[in-house]
Amino acid sequence: MENYLNEDPLVKLERKEEEKKNNSGNALSKIFLVVLAVLAVALAAALFLVLSSKNKLVNDLNTEKVELTEQIQALQSDYENLSSNYDSINAQLDSSRAEIAQLVDRVKRTEATDRAKIRQYEKELGTLRTIMRSYIQQIDSLNTLNHRLAQEAAEARQEAEEHKQINEVLTKEVETLTSRVSAGAVLKARGIKMEAYNNADRVTDRSARAVRFLVSLSLVENELADRGPVRVYVRVFDPAGNLVSTGQDVAFTCAGEELVATAAREVDYQGAEVDLGIYVNNIPAPTKGVYNVIAYTDKSQLGVADLYLR
């Protein structure tokens, strides 16, 4: 105390100024620490919100993938339970079952966050559902037709019993009618595929460069099938499931069902294998995704094929 009383006034003034600065510095330090603490809390809250939002999005995508997988597996079960008495349809069903199995495997191996592929798989699921409805319609139509033909054959046999004098003629008619019912007379095809071509007439898988499609297939040898002109129709569907229209659409009837084809071509079938290609020109601006084609004759569906454009 005595030292402070005897302290030089200038020294005393400097010492007070120094104490004042120290007190001010301590106050600023405390304020700085408080600001840092507030910022840390705010950043932690923001980080928590971001992580929560991300986790919710990931959970939603995983849920969407699970639902898609369940839908595909349900359709797979429907395909397994679907059967027919027709070799051509059974072969097509086997092909579609293989496609569904591959689709299930691809969905399981794809991350739920890969939304582009998930959307593609959803479109493929829609296409497979459309194809399955087509199978069901064909089976129902053929069953109805066969039932009617079987009734006609039974009536013809009864009439043959009642009229002995024309027994031989009616017997031949019944045999002819029965043979036409058999699946062996149905025209079949193999190697169905669809490719896209650019302006240089080269195969491309890019939607921006595609200007036309080429559907190729082979009508297989069949000694029981009818000879003569056979018109082959193709129905092309875009990734959204819409029928592709070129301005030259062709109306036709298959198994009693009125349909519209994207394109068609007539060939002379004489029982031997015939290779043919059908160009689909003047197509609207192609989009990315899976295009589907279904080939028909006037009597049956020949098969299906896919084309993926990126």
Description:
The protein is α+β, with helices and mostly antiparallel strands. The chain has 5 helices and 10 strands. The protein has helices at 2-5, 9-81, 87-109, 115-162, 167-181, and strands spanning 189-197, 203-204, 212-219, 228-237, 250-254, 257-261, 263-269, 274-280, 289-296, 301-309. The strands form 3 sheets. A 4-stranded antiparallel beta sheet has the order 2-1-3-8, with no helix packed on it. Strands 7-4-9-10 form a 4-stranded antiparallel beta sheet. The chain has a two-stranded antiparallel ribbon with strand order 5-6. Helix 2 packs antiparallel against helix 3 (87-109), helix 2 runs parallel beside helix 4 and helix 4 packs antiparallel against helix 5.
